[in-house]
């Protein structure tokens, strides 16, 4: 099938970037491999844990389950931002996994994704972008939030997930839809 445009592999949903950081800061450090730990999150990341690890959430109630163990962003957002003059690389918006070729924002709550051979995650909701984004580039916050016709915000800064099955994830690994819930529940902020 050579010569028929993009290769089949290029069209398949793929992990194009990985990042983690042991310290709570906005951007994460790029890496080639992540180990996902069932019920906990990303090994070596500041947000790993069964209960909330985001500092503002710990201050409110440290016993709440951690629904933000893994943060995923679609690279198509970076393409859109580049058209608006922003040069964003994987990990800079605080995500652990950058994908290409899958509509993360269109998934329902409870959708399960296989990352690589073994890791299985379940989407819990949308990431709510915060004003820290403007610290990376002035005006970036406005660029990652659109408005629907009825005025509701459309948050484009990725999705959050929990780890169902452990496994290593490598840059270049496939992303596949493992299952969908029986009832479609749209994503909301977690």
From TrEMBL:
Gene3D superfamilies: PK beta-barrel domain-like. PROSITE patterns: MOSC. GO terms for molecular function: catalytic activity; molybdenum ion binding; pyridoxal phosphate binding. Residues 29-178 form the MOSC domain. It comes from the Bacteria. This is MOSC domain-containing protein YiiM.
């Amino acid at each position: 099938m050579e010569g028929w445009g993009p290769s089949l592999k290029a069209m398949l949903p793929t992990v194009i970037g990985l990042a983690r950081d042991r310290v709570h800061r906005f951007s994460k450090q790029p890496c080639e491999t992540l180990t996902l730990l069932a019920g906990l999150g990303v090994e070596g990341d500041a947000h790993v844990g069964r209960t909330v690890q985001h500092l503002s959430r710990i201050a409110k109630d440290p016993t709440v389950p951690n629904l933000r163990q893994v943060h995923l962003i679609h690279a198509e957002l970076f393409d859109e931002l580049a058209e608006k003059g922003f040069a964003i690389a994987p990990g800079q918006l605080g995500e652990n996994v950058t994908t290409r070729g899958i509509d993360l924002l269109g998934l329902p709550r409870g959708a399960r994704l296989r990352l690589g051979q073994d890791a299985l995650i379940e989407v819990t909701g949308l990431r709510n972008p915060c004003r820290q984004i403007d610290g990376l580039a002035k005006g970036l916050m406005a660029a990652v939030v659109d408005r629907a016709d009825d005025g509701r915000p459309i948050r484009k800064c990725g999705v959050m997930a929990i780890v169902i099955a452990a496994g290593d994830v490598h840059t270049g690994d496939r992303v596949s839809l493992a299952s969908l819930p029986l009832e479609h529940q749209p994503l909301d902020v977690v």
